[in-house]
Structure formats: C-alpha cells, structure tokens
C-alpha cells in the first residue's frame, strides 16, 4: 500500500501478525496520513495479545500506542480519534450496537481502557509517564485504581516497535513498582470481576469477556511484579500453578485451563464466573508472598536472582 512507502520496518514487523490486525493497522496509518500526516508520528508501538500467536483470540483487541510530536494539538488528536471507532467496527474489533446498555458499556470501556484498540498521545505525556494522558482514560479512576507503573511496565516489556523512534528505553529505568500497586491491581480487577457477575443477568452484554480480562490482568500484573517480564499466558499460568500447595495444584490447573478455553471460546459459564474473585485475590497474594521471599533472600545475601527468572523448587508451596 502507498502509505507504507518509506516505512518498510512496519511491513517487516507486521509479518507475523494475523491478517485482521495487519489490515487494521494499515488503515490506521492511511487515516493518520490523510488527516495529520505520517511525519507527525514519533513512534508506534503494538502491545498485548496480537504480538503472540497463541494469545490472540476472538476476545482480543489490537492494542496500538501512537505517540505524536508535541506540536500536534489535543483538539486535532480528538478529531481523528472519532474515525478510529469506524475502523475498529470495520475490522471487527468492536461491535456497532445502538442499544443504551451497549452504549453505557462503551463509556465504561473508554473510562477504563478495557477493549480499546488505540491509544493516542504526545511525547511530553509519554516522557512524564502521565498515565491518563497516555491511555486517555478517566483521570480520577486511573489515579484511584489503576496500577499505573505495572501497566506501563507491561507495555514496555510486551511491545513491538513498529515505526519511528523507540521511546521505550528512556522510561524503563523510571518504572518503580511497590506493593501499593498490587493492592490497586487487586481492587481494580475485583471491581471488573464483580461488574461482570452483575451484568451476567443480561446475557447479551457478554459478561464473560470482562471476567476473562480481569483474570488476564491479574495474572499479568502479578507476574510483572514478581519477575519484571511479560511472558505469554501459558508460561504465566504455569508459574502460578507451581505457587500452589501440591494438593491445590490440580484445582488451579483446572481453573486456568478453563480460563484459556473460554478465551478461545467465550461462552456462558456461571460456575467459572463465581470462582474468579477468589482466584484474583489468590493470584495477587501468591505474587506478594513470592516477592517477599525473594527480598528476604536478597537481603540475607543467600539468594542470587538469575538473569532468566526461574522458580526454585524449594520455595514452594507458597504459604499465604
């Protein structure tokens, strides 16, 4: 496509991504070039499930972070953002539904950033790590509940640089994660989980997909807190199964297998839904326990953390 002339790195990096996402990204570039100009883009990052073949499912969106030069006005960014919805509908990342309940869900999604396939920001917001300006979410909600450094850390570790300058390096050294972030992650994912159970009274609102997002982000946040990496869900679930006592590992494995199955085939499963809040709490507590164990060993100069994070057999099961 003509828009990709001079941007061969994008085409190269899109080779292993599914056709649906490739076409969506190309249309995004065409839109930006027409309305603002491709030269106004500083950097484009692709993060999330679309980067990993075995993680991309029917409930996955295509997470694009586009960083513009500071001279691009906020008004202009808001104007072109209106067209992104049409592109998401065109490429089946979002469903067009005029019903009031669906429109309310759309507002909730925009407020929290859940199931949003584009994030448009400017360089100054990126360098300031201004979370609500980067992800264009509600300022009060993000300050109160979003584990901002964990989310940013996951984006930095779990992203592909598609175009322009790679602005990730300058932020990596600034990401500091404390236990308070895990408390916020627990609360936020529990809120999503309970919200999913409440809307399960209305089957057409697809409550299962919200529950799946709550479990996914509980796993990703807790994994990043422990290991500072962004492995795929298959690897992460194995880690958290190994955290369990031997007699509980089969139960945890069964839960996570059901979780992965529902991500591929999102059907109603109330038994799974009601088990999720307890599992979310357990995931976070196991991560905090593991982190405390590592800190104690580091402080006593007994434990040396390897370059590639591994889980020593002698540390398990973790007790909470």
Which whole number gives the mean pLDDT?
83
**Radius of gyration over alpha carbons?**
20 Å
Reported for the largest beta sheet, the result is: 4 strands, mixed
- Gap from first CA to last CA: 55 Å
Regarding quaternary structure, what we see is single chain
Pick out the low-confidence regions.
Answer: none
Overall geometry? globular
Order of helices and strands: HHEEHHEHHHHEHHHHHH
**Total E-strand runs:** 4
Explain the overall architecture.
This protein folds into two domains: 2-172, no CATH class; 179-315. The chain has a four-stranded mixed β-sheet with strand order 3-2-1-4. Helix 8 crosses helix 11 (207-227), helix 10 (179-199) packs antiparallel against helix 11 (207-227) and helix 11 packs across helix 12. The chain has helices at residues 8-13, 19-35, 74-90, 100-112, 123-127, 131-134, 139-145, 148-157, 169-172, 179-199, 207-227, 233-242, 246-264, 270-299, and strands spanning 41-47, 63-68, 118-122, 159-164. With 320 residues, it is α+β, with helices and mostly antiparallel strands. The protein starts with 7 loop residues before the first helix and ends in a 21-residue tail after the last helix.
Features:
four-stranded mixed β-sheet; 4 strands
């Amino acid at each position: 496509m003509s828009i990709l002339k001079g941007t061969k790195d994008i085409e190269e990096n899109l080779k292993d991504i599914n056709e649906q996402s490739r076409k969506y990204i190309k249309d995004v570039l065409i839109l930006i070039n027409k309305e603002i100009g491709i030269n106004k883009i500083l950097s484009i990052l692709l993060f999330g499930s679309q980067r990993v073949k075995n993680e991309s499912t029917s409930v996955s969106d295509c997470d694009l972070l586009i960083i513009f030069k500071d001279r691009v006005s906020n008004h202009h960014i808001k104007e072109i953002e209106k067209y992104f919805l049409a592109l998401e509908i065109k490429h089946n990342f979002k469903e067009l539904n005029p019903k009031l309940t669906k429109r309310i869900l759309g507002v909730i999604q925009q407020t929290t950033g859940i199931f949003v396939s584009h994030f448009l920001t400017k360089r100054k917001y990126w360098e300031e790590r201004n979370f609500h300006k980067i992800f264009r979410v509600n300022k009060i909600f993000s300050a109160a509940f979003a584990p901002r450094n964990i989310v940013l850390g996951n984006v930095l570790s779990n992203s592909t640089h598609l175009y322009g300058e790679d602005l990730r390096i300058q932020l990596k050294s600034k990401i500091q994660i404390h236990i308070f972030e895990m408390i916020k992650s627990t609360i936020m994912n529990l809120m999503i989980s309970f919200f999913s159970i409440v809307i399960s009274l209305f089957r057409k609102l697809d409550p299962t997909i919200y529950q799946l997002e709550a479990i996914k982000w509980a796993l990703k946040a807790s994994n990043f807190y422990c290991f500072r990496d962004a492995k795929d869900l298959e690897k992460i679930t194995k880690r958290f199964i190994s955290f369990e006592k031997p007699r509980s590992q089969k139960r945890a494995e069964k839960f996570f297998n059901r979780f992965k199955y529902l991500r591929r085939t999102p059907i109603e499963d109330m038994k799974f839904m009601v088990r999720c809040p307890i599992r979310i709490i357990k995931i976070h507590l196991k991560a905090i326990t593991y982190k405390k164990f590592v800190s104690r060993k580091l402080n006593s100069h007994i434990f040396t953390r390897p370059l590639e994070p591994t889980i020593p057999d002698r540390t398990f099961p973790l007790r909470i």
